Amino acid sequence: MRGRTVKKKQPHSNRYLQAVQMLGNGQQVYSPIEAIRKVKQTATAKFDESVDMAVNLGVDPRKSDQMVRGVVNLPHGTGKKQKVLVFAKGEQADAAREAGADMVGAEDIVEQIQKGWKGWKNFDIIVAGQDMMPIISRIGGILKARMPNPKSGTVSPDPAKVVRDIKQASRVEFRVDKGGIVHMPIGRASFSEEQLLENMLVALNALLRAKPATSKGRYLQKITLSSTMGPGVQVDVNEAQRLAEQVKG
User: Does CATH place domain 23-79+172-244 in 3.30.190.20?
Assistant: First the structure.
């Protein structure tokens, strides 16, 4: 009995493969503005695709003194609206609500989470006032990586300001992953080339300022831009770093 021939499923759409071919199969390196132009050209989906940047860093994330993390406010925002949960009391709680926080509370929310409430997972970012940390520490084992942290700017004496930055879609947290790569959104395909370039350089400047003192050798090793549905576009690292270093802090 003859077996049926199984037609292999194509891993990518024809549109994606055409975009890859247009980019020289991912081997060509472009200046920052040219890379952005290519990403916009390949963002042909029916929705406004996100434009993301992946940066390979010369660090060893397994070493605590080479962990790269921080927060940056992009001048033109990311174009993405995020849901925010805030732990605060009194005037800080009122200010956070006025700033647009989607949910605000203190011990009441901690108790809900301790009893098994999973709704906290629906929030993109969790923010806390500094005086809330002893209370939130009770659920640190549940929140884990989502736990508010001063280094990521989610613990603040002014949580309302953090909420405003988030709601304006300008605030971006970054953290190196196990592979030594930082992934950051820098806008939408509908943004102008100039807006995306400025966001990109401000983000790179923040990464440069977050360089660990123990990092040796080349720090920025590879920069890739891509849209949600598009292929990666390699950026000239030397030119990108030169331009990013000129950004005023």
Answer: yes
Q: Report d(CA 160, CA 241) in Å as an integer.
A: 33
d(CA 98, CA 184): 28
The whole-angstrom separation of Cα 238 and Cα 249 is: 20
Distance CA 249, CA 247 (A): 6
Task: Give the number of residues written for the chain.
Answer: 249
Neighbours of 181 (CB within 10 A): 15
Per the listing, tokens 């953090």 go with 162
* Beta pairing class for 181-188 and 50-57: antiparallel
- Write down the domain spans for the chain: 23-79+172-244, 84-167
Mean pLDDT of 119-140: 95
What strand order describes the sheet that includes 50-57? 29-30, 233-235, 220-227, 50-57, 181-188
Gyration radius of the chain over CA positions: 21
Q: Rounded mean pLDDT of the chain? A: 90
84-167 maps to which CATH number? 3.40.50.790
pTM for this one?
0.72
